[in-house]
Design a protein that fits this description.
This protein is of the alpha+beta class. The chain is built from 14 helices and 19 strands. It has a 4-stranded antiparallel beta sheet. Strands 3-4-6-5 form a 4-stranded antiparallel beta sheet, with helices on one face. Helix 11 crosses helix 12 and helix 11 packs across helix 14.
Length: 530
């Protein structure tokens, strides 16, 4: 095992060069690394919120509003289905998390039940996403099972995380941490972003875009007096159209999820606007609606507010359109960015927000550097005093280990946090523990009468099983923390996980090569650790 094989020497040299090359950009000023050729690695460690400063937000997905929206949509689906089948009904309303309608003619109840049952779809677990029941007094009710609600909430949280990530990426914030916390909460950490209000303004907007027909049969005075037809709703609007609002049909004809692109532009009068492009379904739907409603008004609604309600002058079949309104150039750019990233499936509520100043981050960095230096010095002192020359070899292996960890984290663009520094210190201690096991085994073998070379060889062979077992259990713990933890816990687990692999490599292979070289060069008669 102590044979100085060429591949081992080459592997150790490669590991050392790799670690130095990918660690060096973190030690050089950015002005120097920016001036290096493109083929030179310049990736740096990303500093976490606790080291760099920035903004912290804890958001909660409003699952109550999500369910209410689904019930509202279900109400309109019931109205549409029964209307298409010419089944008379009354009393359509939401009652205790269910949509209930009374069928006027008793002979139509069975037919209504059969048609409404078609709204239900199978789920992955073998059930149905809707429960359709016939009740007393010719009523039919539709409700969502608990497992369907839970699945919808889970999907909303996962979808919100991806949309938040897209929106923050458009701000240019580097390496934001966006993680799930519990069932309905999302934690956002944006290093370098010192204004949480700016983050809230970007990621808190639902950005739900819909196109709905204006209800020209109802005047604004009737709507303000409370006489709004069941299939319509009064929405607020920009002052340019009517500050009192506009009555629109509840039915959504074209929605924002049919968009493929949204870009800021200027209208024919040179005012800021937003150009839209739809996918195939959206283009076809948009063409059908504008063809069938020439001369009528089409409302463009963003987050429940009318942006504009222009007249349809003719069919629009090209798959593109334009939103005009009281935009500034900045608001047009911001809104188009939100539309490109997609609408949030449900509103987000800010549960907690914090700002970590750059001064606090600098203090954390200094504290981390000091703790790392003190820890490394203590480890080096102990191992050298305890094992002499072999302790020096172990210390050299630890240096290589440190270069490898930082180099791998830089290569993978990992984020270093204060707990990550703690993980780095723990990794060094674990690596020393592997050397202690090996050297103590060597002592036992030498005292049992083996020659120095055989004792050293046996020390490595017999200690390796224990080293392997100990590091596997540490790796399992790191994987569990990384899988179920969030934020700083993940940073600690990631550093610890990388350190497991590098520690085994340096404590076994690097130390073997150094000790093998020493045996080959000096041919000692005794071990320096006796």
């Amino acid at each position: 095992m102590l044979q100085l094989r060429p591949w081992k020497v080459a592997l150790v040299v490669f590991a050392f060069v790799f670690g130095v090359v990918f660690t060096l950009p973190n030690l050089l000023p950015r002005a120097v690394t920016d001036g290096l050729p493109s083929w030179v690695p310049t990736a740096r460690l990303n500093l976490g919120l606790d080291l760099q400063g920035g903004s912290y937000l804890m958001l909660e997905v409003d699952t109550v509003a999500l369910k209410q929206e689904k019930l509202n949509n279900l109400t309109e689906d019931v109205r549409r289905v029964l209307g298409q089948k010419q089944i008379a009904f009354s009393g359509l309303a939401i009652n205790h998390d269910a949509v209930v309608a009374r069928i006027t003619n008793a002979a139509d109840v069975a037919g209504a039940y059969a048609e409404l049952n078609k709204l239900s779809a199978p789920t992955a677990t073998g059930g149905r996403d809707l429960m359709v029941l016939q009740g007393a007094d010719q009523t039919v009710s539709l409700s969502m099972p608990a497992q369907s609600d839970a699945a919808a909430a889970n999907q909303a949280v996962e979808q919100s995380i991806e949309i938040i990530r897209k929106r923050i990426d458009q701000l240019g914030t580097r390496e934001p941490s966006i993680t799930r916390s519990g069932l309905t909460r999302i934690v956002v950490e944006a290093p370098g972003e010192s204004d949480p209000e700016k983050l809230k303004a970007v990621i808190g907007k639902t950005a739900k875009l819909t196109f709905q027909m204006v209800d020209d049969g109802t005047t604004i005075e009737e709507a303000l007096a409370g006489r709004v037809p069941p299939g319509s709703v009064l929405l607020p609007s920009d002052e340019a159209y009517d500050p009192r609002g506009v009555v629109v049909k509840k039915r959504v004809d074209v929605s924002g999820d049919m968009l493929t692109d949204a870009r800021p532009s200027f209208d024919q009068n040179g005012r800021p606007a937003i150009s839209l492009r739809f996918n195939g379904l959206g283009a076809r739907r948009f063409g059908e609606i504008t063809t069938a409603n020439v001369g009528k008004r089409f409302a463009i609604v963003l987050d429940g507010r009318i942006l504009s309600a222009p007249n349809i002058l003719g069919p629009i079949t090209g798959g593109s359109g334009e939103i005009t309104g009281s935009f500034t150039q900045e608001s047009a750019t911001e809104t188009s960015n939100l539309l490109r990233s997609g609408a949030l499936p449900a509103p987000l509520k800010v549960e907690e927000q914090r700002t970590v100043g750059a001064e606090l981050g600098a203090d954390s960095i200094r504290a981390g550097e000091s703790s790392l230096a003190i820890g490394a010095l203590a480890i080096f002192t102990f191992i050298i005093l305890a094992y002499g020359l072999f302790g020096v070899f172990a210390a050299a292996a630890l240096v290589v280990n440190g270069f490898l960890i930082v180099g791998l984290m830089s290569l993978t663009q990992a984020t270093l946090t204060l707990p990550g520094i703690a993980g780095l210190i723990l990794t060094l201690a674990v690596a020393v523990d592997a050397n202690v096991l090996t050297y103590e085994r060597m002592r036992e073998e030498a005292r049992a009468g083996r020659t120095p070379l055989l004792a050293a060889d046996a020390g490595f062979r017999r200690a390796f099983v224990t080293i392997f077992d100990a590091n596997v259990t540490t790796l399992i713990a790191a994987l569990i923390m990384f899988s179920f933890g969030s934020g700083t816990v993940k940073g600690f687990a990631w550093t610890l996980g990388i350190g497991v692999f590098t520690s085994v490599f340096t404590a076994v292979v690097v130390t073997q090569v150094l000790i093998g070289w020493w045996f080959k060069t000096f041919k000692p008669k005794t071990l320096p650790i006796l």
